[in-house]
């Protein structure tokens, strides 16, 4: 009894948690128009999407009343996402359910119309849908005044790609839905087999437009229907392509459920975009999705009784597998060439609807510092063909190659944002960036438009290294844009002028003239060594001469002033010795006076008198027999002898 | 002494100018710029090639020729022309970044910047060599003068040794950093090929050569070139698979 009570408590607790979890899921409803503009008679798709609600029971059908518009119910689909987490506390469930009610809106007259919102009941709750605005042009295409910009809505999938409800393209196995019975699609019947039975599978292609311009991107949807009460497996991704157009890669498939003519179908949807490449009528061949249909029943050739038996009571392993090909119907697209009239000079092939915005950073730039001008092109169209907007009034700026990035807003890249980042350096002081212009062709309005972005206010100082190089380049005196930083994902900008650098491919170091120069210098250096040695010797010799001349001068002065005979003879002998040293180029102390006199004085009488003078000096110096005074006549005679010796041997 | 140094400088200044540039008609440069801006890269390339054929040695010409080659899908000639622009002007950052971009596209590591290459961005290697040799000889002259003259001037001798060392260092830096020396007699592989053991298509394979690989050419024989690979192995390669990094005749066969 106690155990039963505990079990009941636990069940109650889990039920309460589940209810709490379910109630905490955010319920929402969205009203989606495939385009907010249309021409009279041009159908537009209207979708009411209910997320995390019970299935609404009182959606208006078969029509929604709106003046000027014919709105017809087209079908309902549901998708669910479930995941289970197994843990120690049991099983947790995370679920999201989406119901989509599709309507076709056909405008009857031009004007601006409002599809009213209305209240519906879903699981006992009252939910109110949002109204939607639709602007309708007349047969001539004239738009009412003050119209909003045309927006061709790419209907987003209810779940993002990669989530569990989106089956991988390979090995898909479509099973009958487990949800409640779907509402039948009004006004639609499935194609019939030759036996008159509803087709078990079929494909259809939905093209955004019946005509297009060469280069225009046209969204395409491929839908493959498979009866929900028949098992299919081994479904392969469809092949899609043809001549005269390029096709974007198919998106990941989405699986929905739809009732067509009272028969439930599983629908696998792929999205793509085609771009016609030439004018004329192009044929869009069927897209083919291969797979295998597994039908219950006996083997072929078996008795009809058993065949009916196995149909009524299917058993595992008993059935028939048949390879199938679901095909879309072939379509044609009228492709026109872009008109030449009114084509702007800077038109680069952009087709669609776009807006242009500009921003600059930093707002203040020092000398040589780059300013980044960011130009953002947003909208829908052939972004692959869009090149950077053209800058206007770029004088005084050094502009580098733009770097672009594209962010897709949908799976096929039809809508999105392309951003161009342009680095520029001010050559001179600037207060604003260049402006920008972007031209495109609007296929709905069949006209060319040019969007303009105003110059952005910045304070940029001119000069600087990069600007200097650019300015010099302009002047053609050797500057070069190469000193600017290059975009990391591209090559640098080309040089605007010759650099004027005078250098060749042969390095000076390897040039013969350089080698000869060095050899010559080395030779000169070696030759200079004897010269230097000679100079040194000469210098030394001159120093000795000066020293000896000083001794000579001193001795002459001494013997002229001497009064004592010893002093006179000593100075006179010093004079003779110094004179001989000068003649021999030797220091005075190293001169052998006797030998030098014999060699230098050829006159015997003169030599004898000089030797007598030297002997008298020795006698007075070492003998001590000095006279009291020198005879003046002898003094004059000896002075004359010394003068004669000096003059004879200068 | 002073007279000798002045004489030395005068002698050095009388050296023939290294640039053998010819005055090419500027019209071709403007034509190349215009064609490039209009996306006509083949016309731009032809215009710049005319300038090169006329003897232009301006790095801007080789940079723009490299750009035109790259835009025209000729990646290897683009890389060669960027190298030529860099050899003529090592401070040309546009050529350096473009070369890095092109080599990056091919998955080849870009050449790094050593000390000597960085020095080359601030001073011409030719000027550095000239200054270095002048300093070296002047310093050596001072040393010789002090050694062989009568006076004993130790300060002067120290200054001479310092100048000589400084000059020798400058010359050594030029030798190490000047890509015209490092890449002299080298060629770039224009398409993936094999280096063989003999100048014959049937000979043994020595190594695979990747596109844009730089090899040193040792000799040529007929339509074969003997190249030294970076790993030190020599091999024969068809000459038409090689493009000299610097224009000039390939060495003759020994």
Describe this structure in words.
The complex is a heterodimer of chains A (650) and B (254). Chain A has eight helices and 34 strands. Chain A has 650 residues and is α+β, with helices and mostly antiparallel strands. In chain A, β32 and β33 (447-453) form a beta hairpin. In chain A, α5 (565-584) crosses α7 and α7 crosses α8. Helices cover 53% and strands 13% of the residues of chain B. Chain B has a five-stranded antiparallel beta sheet. Chain B is globular, with a radius of gyration of 23 Å. The relative contact order of chain B is 0.10. Classes of the chains: A alpha+beta (650), B alpha+beta (254). The interface between A and B is large, with 49 and 65 residues.
Strand order of the largest sheet of chain B: 6-5-4-1-7
Tally the helices of chain A: what do you get? 8
- Terminal Cα separation of chain A, in Å? 155 Å
Radius of gyration of chain B: 23 Å
User: How much of the polypeptide of chain A forms β-strand, as a percent range?
Assistant: 35-45%
Q: What is the total tally of β strands of chain A?
A: 34
Kindly state the number of beta strands of chain B. 7
Q: What portion of the residues of chain B fall into strands of 2 or more residues?
A: 5-15%
Structural class of chain B: alpha+beta
- End-to-end Cα distance of chain B: 47 Å
**Main sheet characteristics of chain B:** 5 strands, antiparallel
Average residue pLDDT of chain B: 82
Q: Which stretches of chain B of 5+ consecutive residues score pLDDT under 50?
A: 16-22, 249-254
> What's the helix count of chain B?
10
Give the % helix of chain B: 40-55%
Tell me the series of helices and strands of chain B, N- to C-terminal. Answer: HHHHHHHHHHEEEEEEE
User: Which outline of chain B best applies?
Assistant: globular
